[in-house]
Amino acid sequence: MLYYLLFAALRRLGVKGVEIRKPEQLQSISSLIIPGGESTTMAKLAEFYNLFPALREFVQMGKPVWGTCAGLIFLANKAVGQKEGGQFLVGGLDCTVHRNYFGSQLQSFEAELLVPELTSKEGGPETFRGVFIRAPAILEVGPEVEVLADYPIPSNKVLYSSSDVEIQEESAVPEKKVIVAVKQGKLLGTAFHPELTADIRWHSYFLKMASDLRGATSDDIVAVSEAASSSDPQTKYDLPIF
């Protein structure tokens, strides 16, 4: 469902999307969206299909990449709260992400976020309604990372630890806010799902990041699929095909 909504949001801006399932496909595109999903499953599939070296090279070349929710975890240089053994990361964003900071699926929520940078570039309301589904949060950022949105939390909040034994427990955190959207160069990361609202300003914001490098066209904005398959890599889709 998330893929359908992501592609639909791009279509509203006049852009087609194409799914990336094989490393060689990255050679023909100039910008990338890594959408939400189950990050461990996505990482295992990306490893199985040998996507990580190509994805890391794509990021290192300075091409625009946007990661939402699980995609944000992929782009982080460091992740905590992972299952035993951790998971592979693409890296590039100088930040530390907590994988399931806000809890399980039952703790999913929506919140109005102040987004001054987004408003200054895209207009519209001063807030954006963030939809957080089993969402990560950014605990620390490096000096070159621009914070685009944060979310207030109780000072005595304890980082979520699942009843599943493979989830690491974390100690209480002193922060009064956690970061939920960042930008570093051509990399954009959001802990929430913009495609689950009618507000397409984040999508427009990313398209403009891409067009700063090169005019964004129908071949420029693509999504890495969690459900890899043997579909024709040359076929362009209005909506994702599984």
TrEMBL record:
GO terms for molecular function: glutaminase activity; lyase activity. Its EC number is 3.5.1.2. The keyword tRNA processing does not apply. One of its GO terms (biological process) is pyridoxal phosphate biosynthetic process. L-glutamine binds at G37, E38, S39, R99, I133, R134. InterPro entries: Class_I_gatase-like (IPR029062), PdxT/SNO (IPR002161), PdxT/SNO_CS (IPR021196). Pfam families: SNO. It comes from the Eukaryota. CDD domains: GATase1_PB. Keywords: Glutamine amidotransferase, Hydrolase, Lyase. The active site is at C69, H193, E195. GO terms for cellular component: cytosol; glutaminase complex. The keyword S-adenosyl-L-methionine does not apply. It catalyses: L-glutamine + H2O = L-glutamate + NH4(+). Signal peptide: none annotated. PROSITE patterns: GATASE_TYPE_1, PDXT_SNO_1, PDXT_SNO_2. PANTHER family: PYRIDOXAL 5'-PHOSPHATE SYNTHASE SUBUNIT SNO (PTHR31559), PYRIDOXAL 5'-PHOSPHATE SYNTHASE SUBUNIT SNO1-RELATED (PTHR31559:SF0). Belongs to the glutaminase PdxT/SNO family. This is glutaminase. It comes from Hibiscus syriacus (Rose of Sharon).
